[in-house]
Amino acid sequence: MSGRVETHEFQAESRQLLRLVVHSIYSNKDVFLRELISNASDALDKLRLESLRDSGLEADTSDLHIELETDAGARTLTVRDNGIGMSYDEVTGLIGTIAKSGTAEFVRKLKEANENKDAAASADLIGSFGVGFYSTFMVADKVTLVTRRAGERQGTRWESAGEGTYELETLDDAPQGTSVTLHLKPEDAEDHLFDYTDTNRLRQIVRKHSDFIPWPVRTTVERPASDGDGGGDGDADGDADGENPAPERTVETLNSMKALWARSQDDISEDEYKEFYKHISHDWTDPLETVHTRAEGTFEYQAVLFIPSHAPLDLYQQGGRRGVNLYVRRVFIMDDCTSLLPDYLRFVKGVVDAQDLSLNVSRETLQQDRQIQLMHRRLVKKILSTVKSLRTKDAERYRTFWQEFGPAMKEGLLSDPDNRETLLDIASFPSTHDPDEQTGLRDYVSRMKDGQEHIYFLTGESRTRLENSPHIEAFQAKGYEVLLLTDPVDEVWVEQIREFDGTPLQSIAKGQVDLDSGKTEESDDEAGREEEQRREKEFAPLLGWLGTALGEDVKDVRLSSRLTTSPACIVGDAHDVTPNLEKMYRAMGQELPRIKRILELNPGHPLTAGLKDAHAANPEDPALAETAELVYGMALLAEGGELSDPARFARTLAARLAAGL
Ligand SMILES: Nc1ncnc2c1ncn2[C@@H]1O[C@H](COP(=O)(O)OP(=O)(O)OP(=O)(O)O)[C@@H](O)[C@H]1O
């Protein structure tokens, strides 16, 4: 008995994604089975948990398992579980819509990789996106899913050939749980399509990819009937009366079901960790690093955590998926457990199994739980120390780590003051020292010149802009290294962190700089001070006049010691918001009052000297005011800033050039 069959269309994005999966050149097609078994295992976890929490749930939990059923004649493979199942709405929401955040970008990249016949890139992409259930279309030309949610009466059938449409039908007689039947494509060894009705093949795949699944994965195997004499191939004379004895059918459990995290580290192979990672993360690529840890004594837990080798597409989106699952004494409690790790480690995947928590913990109670807080602290320390040692032991892998997760880690500089020192030690930053390699702060400090007392940095939009910024001139002339900080988060943490291991951090676009004594702000060098005073006196009339003439744009005009070749630059006071940060605030829709900065002039530049003389000769000359405006505009352009009235700037410049010809 069943309801009406309805045909639905996939959304455009889902359709594109499907087409790419169907025609994928991903070679390891076997992984479809891992995906289905993982989903089935999650469904069993969820049912067990729900039945523990809700004693009124009408569900049979007596023999929770996963079953593989094959039919060589019909060329079908069915993966069946008696887990939580899905409601009609869940089927339409979860299975009918594949598109999730980042799909459009993923589709675009995958298309490009396929067009370029770049199999490695394609595999990497599919792997890191995780197409889950849809990987079935790599091996099947039709997929039928029948499901009924535990506690509900009505079931749902979903069927699709992986093209534009899918069918939905309500069923009255579906068993609890989910079965997914694959109508297999013809075998094609060249295309890595194997015979997935062959029990040996299935056994091999399950052992390789899903051995640790905590639920039995069963299949029925047929063995030729024998009377126990071991004559396995004696079929020529064994059926004298022409009747083959019926083959023996036995149920075999294909996996060992041992929870990986509970086993001793020494007994777990690298491959087992990798497979486990793929199971929990739905990532098809290997993890970058594994952390297996346990605590014993009054508060026991075991944890296997992984650092992926790719950042997920939604790493910087609000509400992106997290990856740590909480178990209590082997019972799955929740996925996406946000209380175990801080937000900046949201890319870490894994399992934490706590011995002494109640099975009834909820997301809300977890946050206040002292044991969880303790675990949180220890796990963070463990992950950070792992990354720290990765940095010293394996530069290549550390580089990948930082490239993928650096900006997220830097959020920790703000949100996790307890681990700030370690995070600063782990961090790397682009620097003028090397155009390609980033540097750690410790390495920076070891290269500091005699007399250099600060770690210098400049923040902004891009490396090129920063490298060409006038602020950097005198530092480069002196051979002082400058960190070039271009991640948006850099603008924020540098405001809060004033030093690294006793060495102060100093923006080269803020405050006064006196490079001769290696000091910033107040200089206490007597001789230098006198020279400075002489110059200041000499330039005072010009500076005073400029301060008024440019009063709309700047709050002060002064002489600079950070310039060697440029005539002028604009700097902020120590606590001023930088132009880049100002831009970010505005982009987020925040209204800010106009922030005026300080114009600094290079006293050694002919333009400044000329301006001084021209001002002394005739302070009323209108051309002088125009030149002042141009000097300010040039300083703004040189740091990559935007002119408030570019047309006016161009007109004034043209007029001044014409006057000079
Ligand atoms: N056997 C099943 N029983 C119950 N629900 C299932 C089953 N298979 C899939 N689902 C539901 O459908 C959702 C989508 O499955 P799918 O495999 O496409 O993605 P996923 O497992 O969430 O992860 P990913 O997209 O990262 O691979 C699952 O999250 C789950 O809620």
What labels describe this entry?
single chain, 661 residues, alpha+beta, Heat Shock Protein 90, Ribosomal Protein S5, domain 2, Rossmann fold, 4 domains, 9-stranded mixed β-sheet, 5-stranded mixed β-sheet, 38% helix, elongated, binds adenosine-5'-triphosphate
Task: Walk me through the structure.
With 661 residues, this protein is of the alpha+beta class. It folds into 4 domains: 14-112 and 121-223 and 247-253, Heat Shock Protein 90, CATH 3.30.565.10; 260-392, Ribosomal Protein S5, domain 2 (2-Layer Sandwich), CATH 3.30.230.80; 429-520, Rossmann fold; 524-660, Four Helix Bundle (Hemerythrin (Met), subunit A), CATH 1.20.120.790. It contains 20 helices and 25 strands. The chain has a 9-stranded mixed β-sheet with strand order 1-6-5-4-7-3-2-8-9, covered by helices on one side. Helix 1 runs parallel beside helix 4 (103-115), helix 4 (103-115) packs antiparallel against helix 5 and helix 19 (622-638) packs across helix 20. The radius of gyration is 34 Å and the shape is elongated. Mean pLDDT is 87; it is low at 229-240 and 517-523.
